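Most newcomers find our protein records easier to grasp once they have seen one. Sequence and backbone structure share a record, each on its own labelled line. Nothing more is needed to start thinking about how sequence determines fold. As an example, a complete record with its sequence and its structure tokens follows.
=====
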Amino acid sequence: MTTPLPGSRLVLADDHPVVLSGLKSLIESNPRFEVLAGCVDGIAALEAIRDLKPELAVLDISMPGLTGLDVLEHIKSEMLPTRVLFLTASANDDHIASAVALGASGLLLKEAAADQLLEALGTVASGSRWLPPEVVGAAIQREVVRRSEFQRVAGALTPREREVVLLATEGLSNKEMARRIGVTEGTVKIHLHNVYQKLGVTNRTARTALALAHIERFKPS
């Protein structure tokens, strides 16, 4: 039996059992790597990483319990030595930017060829990062623009105006919004007028569309 090279023990996590099994077989087809555990959710993956202290973890970004990003955040905060490669079917710009900011060692789309996954794992195992510019670079640039726009929007609106915008995204009428926040309908109209002016939009639909783009960030934590 071939002994895996040092630095190549890994934990694998994906919430689709068939995908998980296929990935395990693929990775272990290269004698360099040893899969210590295969997990179907983020909680189990984090527990395995804590217990087994693998050098590598291959995680899906979207998983139940804890997301891959949550797991990476725990790894960093607990100063665990495991390097993380994200393997995902799809990732939005925010996910990609967050993964890079949190210190992910690699990111690869599941549509990538099998040999590319093994190459990426080899690169990460050697201590380098695998962040393809055609995937990561463009996403980060778009996310920087979006976050800059959010800062402009968030900074322009008062807390009450943000509240009115969120209520507008629910499709409430002016009267319903006034009742919800305990003000007059005329006050709601004033807030809406101010939102139109500050955001540079000219109708309720445009304002709502803009709010929807930032709704998660508008919400109080």
Summary: Residues 9-138 form a domain with the Rossmann fold fold (CATH 3.40.50.2300). The longest strand covers residues 34-39. The chain has two domains: 9-138, 157-218.
